[in-house]
Design brief:
Layout lengths: L7 H10 L1 H21 L4 E10 L16 H12 L2 H11 L9 H11 E7 L8 E10 L2 H58 L8 H40 L12 H19 L5 H30 L4 H82 L5 E6 L12 H25 L7 H8 L19 H13 L1
Antiparallel strand pairs: 1-3, 1-4, 2-3
Helix pairs in contact: 2-11, 3-6, 4-5, 6-10, 7-10, 8-9
Length: 495
């Protein structure tokens, strides 16, 4: 094995000795690379720049119904346009890849590799979003590349319009279905509320004051009827005793005690006097006591008139007065019967009214729950109705292409120079590869040469220390005869 160079000067010496081995591979590879590069198929790339425009109607007037940002929508459009079906139609329309002997799937895969969609993001926006994007297509025919790029640009614009219109329409349909459900819910709650009010009519919270007023009136009437019933019973007792007294009436004068009606009249007047001092003349107790005093006064007057007739009649009128007293007793019996029935009816009404009033807390709670649910449903229905109107306006805006859209700023250009292959880049790579190959070849040749050219080589090969070195003297040898020069040079070389 030859000794490897160590110092940089040794590498330079190797390059000087093996320059031909280095040059030939470098020139050969560089030339071959240039020839191959020129024979590679040339691809022309056509580009188009599409700008993302904001909606033409201010968002303060018409709220957009499409909530997705441009990046998301562009990704969705890419999936639709760059689908196998869509690309197959473009390939058939423009006759792409006819001479490539590719299957249909291979043609689609090749076209996908030839298409590039590069989004451009504006960093100055509050929410960095795609403000534009560039579409490019590469083909061997520059005119065909321009046509396909223009077709792709048109597809992106039309697909964006269609996508936004479908999203807006879908939003409108969804809100409409929600609105119908909200309407049914609201109608159901209104029906429940109506049925509840019908079932508890008379026990509703707004009827509480009226129920209390009616209850007070019924209780007053019940008390008045009870007092009248007591008076009728007392009067019946009095007339019954009077009838008995008429039968046993004597000639001598008799001092009569006050009748029960007179006692009641005296108590009623006393109570009225006290009530007038405590309350106003319009107070219900004062009015009731006044009516009671008037009724008792009339009854006492009738009673006194009857007693006077009995006193004048004497013994001769005893038999004639008995039928009158019995008739009065019969009338009073009828009155007692009627007032007893009225008292029972009043008691039933008071009990029913008290039951209604007792139900008020439960009814009020049920009404509050249903009313709150109805208000929530009504607010939800109103909100959905507003959203439906906004969605309808937004859908109309999208259908008229007044929303956010794509606009071609730079149409597809006709490329004048091929975009690939890059001949300069390939040639530079070929030259570098040739130089590396030449250097490698020269190094291999040098390593296979075992000639000692320096003191280091001699030490490496012989492993013996060198005591002296004679320099090569070439000029004096030129004066010697040629055979001697050759022999001397040969001996110096062997040394």
């Amino acid at each position: 094995m030859s000794r490897r160079p160590i110092a940089p000067i040794e590498y330079l010496q190797v390059a000087r000795r093996r320059w031909l081995w280095i040059l030939v591979p470098a020139v050969a590879i560089s030339g071959a690379t240039a020839v191959v590069a020129r024979k590679l198929p040339k691809l022309y790339t056509s580009q188009a720049l599409i700008l993302v425009e904001q909606q033409k109607v201010p968002a303060d007037f018409v709220k957009p119904t499409v909530s997705s940002n441009v990046a998301q929508r562009l990704e969705s459009i890419n999936e639709q346009i760059l689908s196998r079906t869509q690309l197959s139609e473009i390939i058939q329309k423009y006759g792409l890849y006819r001479g490539h002997k590719l299957t249909q799937d291979g043609q689609v895969a090749q076209m996908l590799s030839d298409i590039a969609v590069v989004p451009i993001i504006n960093p100055d926006q509050q929410h960095a979003d795609v403000s534009a994007f560039r579409i490019s297509f590469s083909n061997r025919d520059p005119l065909l590349a321009q046509q396909v790029t223009g077709a792709l640009s048109a597809l992106y614009i039309s697909e964006n319009l269609q996508s936004r219109a479908q999203q807006a329409q879908g939003t409108e349909q969804f809100i409409d279905s929600q609105l119908q459900q909200a309407s049914q819910t609201l109608q159901g709650l209104q029906t429940q509320l109506k049925n509840l009010k019908s079932a508890y009519m008379g026990s509703l919270p707004e009827q509480q004051q009226a129920n209390l007023t009616v209850l007070s009136q019924l209780q007053t009437a019940q008390q008045a009827n009870s007092d009248a019933l007591a008076r009728a019973q007392q009067q019946k007792t009095y007339l019954t005793s009077l009838n008995s007294a008429v039968e046993s009436l004597g000639a001598g004068p008799e001092v009569k005690p006050p009748t029960p009606l007179e006692t009641q009249l005296r108590d009623a007047k006393s109570n009225l006097s006290v009530a007038e001092q405590l309350y106003t003349p319009e107070h219900p107790d004062v009015i009731r006591l006044r009516a009671q005093v008037r009724a008792l006064t009339e009854q006492v007057a009738q009673e006194q008139a009857a007693a006077a007739k009995v006193a004048k009649a004497g013994d001769s009128g005893k038999k004639a007065s008995q039928p009158q007293v019995e008739g009065q007793i019969a009338v009073i019996d009828q009155e007692i019967k009627q007032r007893t029935a009225d008292q029972a009816d009043l008691k039933t009404k008071v009990a029913a009214l008290q039951k209604r009033i007792e139900q008020l807390p439960d009814v009020e709670e049920k009404l509050a729950d249903l009313t709150n649910a109805e208000e929530v449903a009504k607010a939800n229905y109103t909100k959905l109705l507003e959203n439906k109107q906004a969605a309808a306006i937004g859908a109309a805006m999208e259908q008229q292409a007044e929303g956010e859209g794509f606009r071609i700023v730079d149409p597809a250009n006709l490329p004048e120079r091929p975009s690939s292959p890059n001949l300069l880049y390939i040639q530079i790579i070929g030259v570098l590869a040739g130089i590396m190959a030449g250097l490698a070849t020269g190094y291999v040749v040098e390593m296979r040469d075992f000639v000692a050219r320096s003191e280091a080589d001699l030490n490496f090969y012989t492993q013996v220390p060198m005591f002296a070195a004679l320099p090569l003297i070439s000029k004096p040898l030129l004066a010697l005869p040629a055979p001697l020069v050759r022999s001397t040079a040969a001996g110096a070389s062997e040394t």
